[in-house]
Amino acid sequence: MRARDLNKTRFAMLLFLGSESVFFIFLIVAYIYYHGDVRSGPTAHSSLDPVKTGIYTAILLSSSGTIWLAERAFRRGSSAFRWWIAATIACGATFLCGEMKEYAKMLHEDITISRNVFGSTYFTLTGFHAAHVTVGLLLMCVLLGLSIRNRLREDHGEAVESISYYWHFVDLVWAAVFSTIYLWSTR
Amino acid sequence: MSELQVVPAEMERLHRFEETAGLLKWITSVDHKQIGIMYVLATLMFFLFGGVEALLMRIQLSWPGMHFLAPETYDQLFTLHGTTMIFLVVMPLLIGIGVYVVPLQIGARDMAFPRLNALSFWLFLFGGLLLYFSVFYGNSPDAGWFAYAPLTEKPYSMMEGMSFWCVGLLTAGIGTVASGINFIVTVATLRARGMSLNRLPLFTWMTLVNSFIILGALPALNASQVMLLLDRELHTRFFNPTGGGSPILWQHFFWNFGHPEVYILIIPAWGMLSEVIPVFSRKPIFGYTFVAASTVAIALLSFWVWGHHMFAVGLGHWPDIFFAATSALIAVPTGIKIFAWIGTMWGGAIRFTTSMMFAVAFLIQFTMGGVTGIMFAVVPIDWQLTDTYFVVAHLHYVLFGGTLFAVFSGLYYWFPKMSGRMLSERIGRWHFWLTVIGFNATFFVQHIVGAMGMTRRVWTYPNLPRWAVLNLISSIGAFVLGFSVLIFLWNLWVSAKRGEPAGPNPWDAWTLEWATTSPPPEYNFREIPPVHGRRPLWDLQHPESEKNPKEHG
Fold it and tell me: A165 at the B interface (CB within 8 A)?
């Protein structure tokens, strides 16, 4: 690929996601470091429900498909773009609701961020991921709003693609987080 | 051909510094040249802060048993000094000069994302001010610049100083990551026609490599600081041993950032040297490919040496051997560079301008810092010298005798481009010699007291044989050094007002930033010279050398 063909917005997004993955790797390493080291109090095994969260995980991961379809519709200039973006937002929001419910249940059982190292690493890692989901939802709401007002032009393609990269990244991080925290908890 | 045709003749009135001096114009600017200059000015301000902190410490240490400072104050001063010099002076200074020079060197109009560029600058400035706000809040950070847990944890550091440290550096750190992204995209997409990676000026090469290290290293610091901040404010258990956390994890996390950071602090300085030495030796750089490739090698190695900061922790036999080997390995690509610079000077028609003198002093002092660095890769020596003044001497030889000397060299080289006027060579000589004398007087003796066993970060010391006199020499040297900084600032001030007009290319240099007026117009280039090799302006002046294959990438 020649340098001139490189799209600077997409490239910058990829570099940004590269730096973000380093950030998440350190949070995940902190979780792994303390995984076998919880001396007392709640653990992943005792306080999490991998099946229920597994369903929410499936919903979140399927939104990578819907945003891909949205992107394809955008390139064709089809109004189906709006529906697919709306579907992606719905998936992301459902996931967040599921996570909030889980948080509420855990807080109810007095499993908090300051309870023990499991609580600290768990809430920090999933909390930062949830913040990233929220940012993604806001970005897609902006896209949807622009599209409904017919303000999204064909040359906004790089913005749509960059947001889609970001969303795939958020899903990928969750796949790693889910495997580390939930699947590892059952042993 | 005596004068380059691509440089606009004087028919256009020179863009004067005063015309853009309206404060609002600077604050709202997205022009990479104005932002670059603001970076330099802001770092000079922090440099003065950090310098005053150092002088206060040197007064306290000038004689055994002094009571000039309370121990708590001393702790805050060395923490602020280290944090300031690393995060608020050297790193942003190198980024700032890069922001000014890189777009010019590649023949671009601006950075790829000018507004992001401005955001980076303001995040850095306000992050720095936030850190300093802790002083007014009543307690500044006091656990050293690498903030070892559990000293940084709430029970051991009740006041908010360390929280300010986290938040301030997080703010600045996000800006640094944005700068890294901006540089990479700029170099990747905005190069002039014909400027392949193999023809990129070496300063730009090194800034590019550096940006990748920033993207790999800074997020590690940001993540660690987030965890520390949560520990302090939400009582999480990451690094607090009484809550099941591990202080060693902090050390691993911090040095995962901290060692690449050391290279973030030196690589652009190497880039400056690789511009200055060839121009003042009137020769192309010796071994261009090796200089560029060895930088990439160092960037890759830099992520695998963090454990050498932790030999004294007791990581075990095999980790120690691994980190000793990787650390010693770094000497190879670094040595290649030193030889390349000496090879460039060899047989050249050297012009000893102030800029070149700083570059030559760099070669000597940086090599000394490098040699003590290799000593630290040897585990038993490290055990003996950990946390002594020998470490302090080593790191100052690398960061001051190395990086800052290169930065002075770069500033004398590029100041004419930035301001349109030459820095005074006469004041420059004074600045150079006082800096060399002051620097070596301050830090050379610290090798000796360090080897004698004087520990760093302790507010005073017993009156052992020769300790007092060596420390006194160091303190006097520090004041000479402080005085030399004032002379430098005086030179900047006087020369910006009344210096000799520089003209587009005062050094007869050959990279693209010299193919426009000084200072460049807002749009940088009216016309970009053709790039057929590594030295486009030289090629333009010497069309006969076009056939010399050695010069072309």
Answer: no
Domains and CATH numbers, chain B: 32-545 (1.20.210.10)
Cβ contact A116–B243 (<8 Å): yes
- Alpha-carbon gap: B133 to the closest alpha carbon of chain A (Å): 27
Q: Would the CB atoms of A12 and B112 count as touching at under 8 Å?
A: yes
Q: Which pLDDT tens digit goes with each residue over A121-150?
A: 999 999 999 999 999 999 999 999 999 998
Cβ-nearest to A16 among B181, B218, B244: B181
For residue B101, the tally of other CB atoms under 10 A from its CB is: 28
Residue B113: list chain A partners with CB under 8 A: 8, 12
Residues B226-262: pLDDT tens digits? 999 999 999 999 999 888 899 999 999 999 999 999 9
Question: Is B180 an 8 Å CB contact of chain A?
Answer: yes
- Give exposure, B290-300, as e/b (b: 16+ Cβ within 10 Å): bbbebbebbbe
Does the structure show a pLDDT above 60 at B16? no
B66 and B460 Cβ atoms separated by less than 8 Å = yes
Q: Which residue has the tokens 């590029």?
A: B414
With CA atoms as reference, report the closest residue to B532 among B522, B517, B543, B521. Answer: B543
Alpha-carbon gap: A126 to the closest alpha carbon of chain B (Å): 13
In this model, does residue B2 exceed pLDDT 50?
A: no
Best of B177, B187, B236, B251 to disrupt the A interface (most A CBs within 10 Å) is B236
Backbone angles phi, psi at B501, to 5 degrees: -60, 140
Residue B388, strand partner residues: B455
Can you tell me the ipTM of this complex? 0.94
Beta bridge mates, B455: B388
CB burial class (10 A; 0-12, 13-18, 19+) of residue A100?
exposed
Cα(B37)–Cα(B15) distance, rounded to whole angstroms? 15
Q: Which residues partner with B421 through β-bridges?
A: B501
CA-CA distance, A154 to A166, in Å (whole number)? 20
At B209, is the secondary structure helix, strand, or coil?
helix
Rounded CA-CA distance A24/A171 in Å is 13
CA distances to A43, B171, B353, B472 from B182, in Å: 42, 17, 33, 46
Q: What homologous superfamily is domain A50-186 in, according to CATH? A: Cytochrome c oxidase, subunit III, four-helix bundle (1.20.120.80)
CB contact under 8 A, B189 and A121: no
* 3-state secondary structure at position B265: coil
Q: Domain extents for chain A?
A: 50-186
Mutate to test the interface with A, among B181, B183, B213, B240 (most CBs of A within 10 A): B181
CB B342 within 8 A of CB B290: no
